[in-house]
Amino acid sequence: MLAVNKSARHDYFIEEVFEAGLVLTGTEIKSLRQGKVSLAESYAKLIDEELFIVGMNIKPYEQGNRFNVDPMRLRKLLLHKKELRYLYKETKREGLTIVPLNLYLNDRGIVKMEIALAKGKKLYDKRESIAERDAERRMQRIKLK
Known about the structure:
Helix content: 25-40%
Distance between the termini: 33 Å
């Protein structure tokens, strides 16, 4: 696991989860392996039937010198055309958004991103989920005693 977007599950109701590949440069991969990435405040956007991640910050690789790229640039996400059409249809129809959940290396060493089709939570929804989590913790403590 390279990075986790902790606020995504707190701020959104997760409807569906997809696995997407990323188009990255060599120095970005090296920086990712060092853990210099932030998914906070990032989201995915459909532009001309292609999906891009916006707001993902990959710090420049220290030994990368002239090969480093802009840390906040748009990065293309790779999905099947059928999945892209489905995401486009769902985001337009229901007002859902696409948020990144986590970034990881698969078993072959390829960087993958888990993205989700999500619906924003209201303040009272967040309070309910916090109350549920606290109640579950209390139950766990009682079971341990």
